[in-house]
């Protein structure tokens, strides 16, 4: 109840700022036309964060003596967690990255994927057993996988990660997803959310998708994606490939989702109150429906503009100007068949975002490369954009 009142207050205070006709009137009409009244994204995201936190706590208790991957605290990523989802409220999916760390006696090695044919970097995660006999504090309750006989290990210790969730020596995204889905179903009654929601695990090969339904019939969709951090950077390898691609289950794709979420938090802390960048994103996403332009191209455009236009110029009263800037920037990039990926060789990158050293000076990844290689697709994309 309190949270809902706060949400109402937020939306009222935002609306009360918009009393400057006729331009603000225009924004008000746009907002209603595109169903952009301030969504309850933040409070529902909080529910999802608490749910994942509770589930992970149960998993730590359950798997503490096993050699499954160690599940780190979940990180909210994607448009819903960033606060600007282009979807209607009932279609929003809250995506959570759960980073995996190797269990005792194991290490992860990230290796380039020899079969990689994806536009972004694809890797494999090789699992290696390491000696636990020596070291700072030898684990008295654990036999060393390298220096105890197979017989002893079989009799006294559960299987290593190599024998459970790997294919050959490589971590398998499909096996991890199935393991976690099975865990969620069995652990559901142990979390407090089970008293408020019924839960159904939806089909998914590389992630865990849940549909939570309240007694009122209102639903909430959550997707848990498994990831492995690259060094100590904000770039992760993700178990979940884009929808159109189905690489082998031991292929993990480089993902920038955590760095993007961090960038939006960085902007939120420095932007004026009720800044319009998220509204701008939602509005442009609605305008671009039917253009075939990927939402990721729009998001990249707005991220570039947030570093090019001072944050003081993103006040609510400038919304239509920023929408105009965004559409013009996108149009120019389309004409030139070139939209630079935000995280490669970008001098305007906020310092608190940690990138692998290879990203500095790297050849910028062009998100419109496919249009540069296919003149017919380029002509069609420009035509659809002009029709808007």
UniProtKB/TrEMBL annotation:
InterPro entries: ITPRIP-like (IPR026250), Mab-21_HhH/H2TH-like (IPR046906), MAB21L/cGLR (IPR024810)
Domain Mab-21-like HhH/H2TH-like: 291-352
Subcellular location, record wording: Membrane
Superkingdom field: Eukaryota
Segments of skewed composition (Basic and acidic residues): 1-11
Region (Disordered) residue spans: 1-22
Main location: membrane
The entry's keywords: Membrane, Signal, Transmembrane, Transmembrane helix
The keyword Transmembrane helix appears for this protein: yes
Biased composition (Acidic residues): 12-21
GO cellular component terms listed in the entry, alphabetical order: membrane
Protein name: IPIL1 protein
Organism encoding this protein: Hypocryptadius cinnamomeus
